[in-house]
Design goal:
Blueprint (H helix, E strand, L loop, with lengths): L2 H20 L17 H9 L4 H7 L6 H4 L11 E3 L10 E4 L21 H6 L3 H17 L4 E2 L23 H16 L6 E5 L11 E4 L2 H6 L1 H12 L3 E4 L3 E2 L2 E2 L4 H11 L5 E4 L8 H6 L13 H9 L4 H17 L14 H15 L1 E5 L12 E5 L7 E2 L31 E2 L3 H8 L4 E5 L4 H9 L3 E8 L16 H11 L3 E7 L13 E4 L7 H9 L36 E2 L9 E2 L3 E4 L8 H7 L16 E8 L3 E8 L5 E10 L10 E10 L4 E7 L7 E3 L4 E3 L4 E7 L7 E6 L1
Parallel strand pairs: 2-3, 4-6, 5-7, 5-20, 6-9, 11-14, 11-15, 15-16, 16-17
Antiparallel strand pairs: 1-2, 7-8, 10-17, 12-13, 18-19, 21-22, 22-25, 23-24, 23-28, 26-27, 28-29
Helix pairs in contact: 2-13, 6-7, 6-14, 7-9, 14-18, 15-18, 16-17
Bound molecules: beta-D-glucopyranose.
The site of beta-D-glucopyranose (BGC) has 7 residues, from loops.
């Protein structure tokens, strides 16, 4: 067959093939609910009235695990969750894809999706504009691939630094995390996709996640983990909240009346729907009456069981209507009826550009002794060592994994696996190549680092050495400890012994310990830096970009300094405790229930170190720049704070000016809390006056007896500066 004939034949059969795989185009929605002048709530309630009982039930559950592991349900475009629509009324299929750091599972279907830097990098930017760009890329790539809901927006706090999913989340501070997630979700929703937040709540470690009972007092929960959700949900106009696997104070999160009905829906006024994490539903009536609106991914409880419960009156008809109302409301609010998702090629170049911008804005310069950085383009020789830096950058695993365009750049040897939850994936963005392009006349050589002696030899023969180190992490497990795995600490020590001009670039999901930090000349925390990570790292090392990121979480000196020096681990299974965790799946897991008492309570992250009088290795809010800043002229009033920031160095830069507050003694919180910040661009020598609002909510405490936030009367001390432990200005205000 001639090439042109083949092409014509393919074009002719393509529509048939697509129709067969994805079904006929949905009926054009018609009916009074299509009147855009009505509110999403009004439109949803008009539509609920049209639905038969079985149709309502069909909208409150998914189609099963097959969407993930088996044959795709008819019309599904391949995401983790699928709820068939109702064509006679023009209700669209709900197509949900995991999308924590980019759209997951693209390559399986031959699609490209941008692997963005991890959520912790986004948070390290402290930049709401960056978070919006992040959300807009994810939203538009979801929409372009036929998805109308993303399962991202992970906002669990870094309460447990060994949590394998910290890379997906936004750090340890509730206000920073909530605001970053809110900005991301708002921008995502503008792309016609339902904005979503997870995992509600206090799902702060992976070990035993389906069986762990988190014990935490109400006030601590509301002022820490739940505050991040509250801010993210409200500021992001979030339409769907995923409840988590764990139990909270003795009750599964997905049937926890306090969390779902009382706090989320009543106190916060959330009008969207709650869906269970995959397999996180445990009952029908109990869960439905506690506020769960949708079971995912199947219908074990919200199919036939729920029908029976509604028939018998254990779940009221009104409650079923409300569940459906909430789902349809979020669909109308995000534009699913008015602007259906369409499959088309994503704007790859825009995605790449944003990925790079986030990595540049989110990589934290931790150390820079003697002005080691930025590197001069006239450097004569560089040893690049370790972490497959010749081919790519590492990424986080689990449902957040974005498939690597072109495949894994550093797959483990054939027949072996280097992680339980799928192989660790390296994206094809080579730091080595990017470094070479910055110093075209230098001799830039790479060694793997497997042999520290060979690495030391190369370092010794080079003007500078850049050692790349990593700490892989993934959903499904926690990090055993905060040390770099394998021989990496020994590698850094060997290299720095051979060459004092050693720069360490860290690719980690969160905090790691650094026994060599006093010996090396510079360190850059690049997190999991995404598909343009190599380019971003080179731009930062050579000063094309002046680092401006700040740590969104504390780095401890040692695990001994943590509230829980040992990770809470699930006890071994007893008799009869190996069970199939999820209906419809045949593998077995240990179902032994166990408790974690979060008795550090309010003292998460920097609040812990301050209260305990322990100094971390690197504090929350810390990050260096190639310039310096000074602060002056603080003025505090009840509603705002004003001060000057000056760039006192020779390069333009962006200073993240931070404001912390300590509450009156009567509040019982003798540590400071972040309440506001701004990222201020400053030319060399330039000074700017910064005014930030003091939101009364962020100054309040939660009174658990009254179930209400309250502002404690008395003296508030307000601090301003460039890091949680470097706050040169302070003043007081009476409230
Ligand atoms: C994860 C969720 C994810 C879901 C669907 C679960 O195991 O905890 O974050 O969205 O799977 O893939």
């Amino acid at each position: 067959m001639k090439k042109s004939t083949l092409l014509l034949t393919l074009l002719a059969v393509a529509p048939v093939f697509l129709t067969a795989q994805f079904g006929p185009p949905p009926a054009k929605p018609a009916g009074p609910w299509m009147d855009k002048a009505l509110s999403p709530d009004e439109r949803a309630s008009l539509l609920v009235k049209q639905l038969a009982f079985d149709e309502k039930i069909s909208l409150v559950h998914g189609t099963g695990w097959e969407a993930l592991f088996g044959e795709l349900p008819l019309h599904s475009v391949g995401g983790a969750g699928f709820v068939p629509g109702i064509p006679r009324l023009g209700i669209p299929d709900l197509q949900m894809a995991d999308a924590a750091v980019g759209v997951a599972r693209g390559a399986v279907f031959g699609r490209y999706c941008t692997p963005l830097p991890s959520g912790v990098s986004e948070a390290a930017s402290w930049n709401l504009a960056t978070a919006r760009e992040y959300g807009a890329v994810i939203g538009s790539e979801l929409h372009d691939q036929g998805y109308n809901m993303g399962l991202g927006g992970g906002v669990n706090l870094t309460r447990e630094p060994r949590n394998g999913r910290n890379f997906e989340y936004k750090g340890e501070d509730p206000i920073l995390a909530g605001k970053i997630a809110g900005a991301e979700m708002k921008a995502l929703s503008e792309q016609g996709v339902i904005p979503h937040i997870k995992h509600y709540a206090v799902n702060d470690q992976e070990n035993g996640r389906n069986f762990v009972n988190v014990k935490i007092d109400k006030r601590a929960m509301r002022e820490t983990d739940l505050l991040a959700f509250e801010i993210g949900i409200k500021e992001g106009g979030v339409g769907a909240v995923m409840c988590s696997y764990n139990l909270v104070n003795g009750v599964y999160a997905c049937e926890n009346n306090y969390l779902l009905n009382e706090v989320l829906k009543k106190q916060w006024g959330f009008r969207g729907f709650v869906l269970s994490d995959w397999g996180g539903t445990h009952t029908s009536a109990k869960a439905a009456n506690a506020g769960l609106d949708m079971e995912q991914p199947g219908d074990t409880y919200f199919g036939r069981e729920l029908k029976k419960d509604v028939d018998s009156g254990t779940v009221s008809k009104a409650r079923l209507d409300e569940m459906v109302q909430r789902i349809l409301r979020s669909e109308f609010a995000a534009g699913l009826f008015d602007r259906p998702a369409e499959r088309r090629t994503p704007d790859i170049f825009h995605g790449l550009q944003v990925a790079q911008q986030v990595a540049e804005d989110g990589s934290v310069l931790l150390k820079n002794a003697g002005g080691q950085l930025p590197l001069s383009p006239s450097v004569r020789s560089i040893a690049v060592i370790g972490s497959h830096a010749d081919v790519g950058v590492i990424s986080g695993g689990g449902s957040a994994q974005v498939d690597a365009a072109g495949g894994n750049a550093a797959p483990p040897p054939a027949g072996t696996h280097n992680s339980v939850f799928g192989d660790v994936v390296w994206h094809r963005s080579s730091p080595l190549k990017a470094i070479r392009s910055k110093a075209p006349h230098a001799k830039v050589e790479y060694v793997s680092g497997d042999d520290p002696a060979a690495a030391a030899k190369l370092a010794n023969a080079s003007e500078v050495a850049i050692v790349f180190v990593n700490q892989p992490s993934s959903e499904g497990g926690d990090i055993a400890n905060l040390s770099l795995p394998g021989n990496q600490d020994a590698l850094v020590n060997a290299v720095v012994s051979a060459n004092p001009h050693t720069i360490v670039v860290l690719e980690t999901g969160g905090a790691v310990t650094m026994p060599w930090i006093d010996r090396v000349s510079a360190a850059l925390e690049a997190w999991f830096p995404g598909i343009r990570g190599g380019e971003a790292i080179a731009n930062l090392l050579f000063g094309d970009v002046n680092p401006s990121a700040r740590l969104p979480l504390s780095f401890p000196k040692s695990e001994r300094d943590l509230p829980h020096p040992k990770l809470a681990e699930q006890p071994p299974a007893g008799e009869g405790e190996m069970v199939a965790p999820f209906p419809g799946m045949d593998f077995k897991v240990n179902s032994h229930k166990f408790d974690i008492a979060y008795d550090e309570g309010l003292k998460v992250g920097y609040k812990w170190y301050e209260s305990e009088g322990k100094s971390p290795l690197f504090p929350f809010g810390f990050g260096l720049s190639y310039t310096t800043y000074s602060y002056s002229d603080l003025k505090v009033s009840a509603g705002s704070v004003t001060f000057n920031v000056k760039n006192t160095g020779l390069r333009a830069g962006a200073e993240t000016a931070q404001v912390y507050v300590t509450l009156p003694a009567a509040a019982g919180e003798p540590f400071h809390r972040l309440v506001a910040w701004d990222k201020v661009n400053l030319a060399p020598g330039e000074s700017k006056s910064v005014t930030l609002t003091l939101d009364p909510h962020y100054l309040s405490i939660f009174n658990a007896d009254r179930e209400a936030w309250e502002l404690v009367k008395g003296t508030y001390t307000v601090y301003a500066g460039g890091s949680s432990n470097d706050l040169p200005l302070h003043g007081t205000v009476q409230m």
